[in-house]
Amino acid sequence: MTSIRSKLSIAFLLVATAIAGCNADSDADSQDAEVPSDYSHYRKGDISVAYPSTWTFFFDDRASLYADREVNFKVSDFSTARILILNEHQRSTESVVDHFVDEFQIKSDSLLINYERSSTTIAGFSGERITWSDTLAGQSDFEFTVIKVQDEPYDTFVTFNLSDEDIPKNEVHKAHFVQSIQLD
Questions:
Q1: Which strands, in side-by-side order, build the sheet including 182-183?
Q2: Each residue of 70-98: pLDDT tens digit?
Q3: What is the pTM of this model?
Q4: No. of helices (H) and no. of strands (E), the chain
């Protein structure tokens, strides 16, 4: 009887250890996914990032219109991915989205319809996403996502401004891009 109990206890411990090991591996994979090998890499000063080879590095400017430093990538002719670093500003994700909505009159332009705002998460970082349709020439769908990736020592955001066909094509790229950012 005791040998059966000890065998069952050992079997239970082995199964529990195997299950725990599988869960630990899946958690690690979701948080530390490897950057695909076909990605390009950008590094300048204290920032390093990997981005899809289909994107184009556009510029890295200090004191841009939106931030103290902006690193910008062209996803396509009508879509961008940006890293915004704000050295002396305390900004929330909501305030960055509000600024964009106000500046581009997303809610007040009669040609822009189907406006929606929601919370989102990319690679474990929280943010907000707005979507709308532009009816100027037919109907084109757009998405603007803001993710805060760092708040110390500087507020650092990633924004994705994607149009129609770029929205589904770049869903997986957003997570890899955000995960690859290193700020020294």
A1: 40-44, 47-51, 182-183
A2: 999 999 999 999 999 988 767 899 999 99
A3: 0.79
A4: 4, 10
